[in-house]
Amino acid sequence: MAESNTENREPTPTHKKIDEDWKKQVERDKVRETTKETQQQQRQQQQQQPRGVPPEAGGFTSFIAGLTMQAMMAMGEMADPNTGMQRENLAEAQYLIDILAMLQEKTRGNLNEQEAAAMEEAVYSLRMAYVRKASGPQAGPQGGSQGS
Question: I want to staple 77 with a disulfide (CB 3.0 to 4.6 A). Which of 1, 47, 48, 72 is the partner?
Fold first, then answer.
């Protein structure tokens, strides 16, 4: 009876140890691959971020700048970076300017000096550009889309 128990017990621990080592190695490999992928993604994000842009670039001032660029593109003052084409849609531009003006009003007193100055400059500049465009010979009665 002692011999049969010994025979049954010996292969099992050896087999489990090999199996466990294999599982641990696979798990370590997965962790390494995940770490490598994460590092590659971080490097790609850093390379895509323009040089000299502060880490807080996703803040309120960047949001204002994004809306300003959209309004400038809608007025035909800038080419769309995705298509390279310029288009004019004064109704869209007016809508974006109105959004910025509403944000300016709703955030009054809650912005730091830099944010408040960026907001003031954006709203003023866009309004002046819109008046020039809307009163120019190219503007239609509704400010509709021209071109694409």
Answer: 72
* pTM (predicted TM-score): 0.55
Give the three-state DSSP class for 41. Answer: helix
Q: What are the φ and ψ backbone dihedral angles of 30, each rounded to 5 degrees?
A: -60, -45
Q: In a 3-state reduction of DSSP, which class is residue 145?
A: strand
Cα 90 to its chain centre, rounded Å, is 26
Buried b (16+ CB within 10 A) or exposed e, 69-103: bbbbbbbbbeeeeeeeeebbbbebbbebbeebeeb
CB proximity list for 115: less than 8 A, separation 6 or greater = 60, 61, 64, 107
130: how many CB neighbours lie within 10 A of its CB?
21
Tell me the pLDDT band of 32, cut-offs 50, 70 and 90: low
Interval 43-82: pLDDT, tens: 666 666 556 555 555 688 888 999 999 999 999 988 888 8
Pairwise CA distance, residues 50 & 135, whole Å: 37
Mean per-residue pLDDT for 10-18? 54
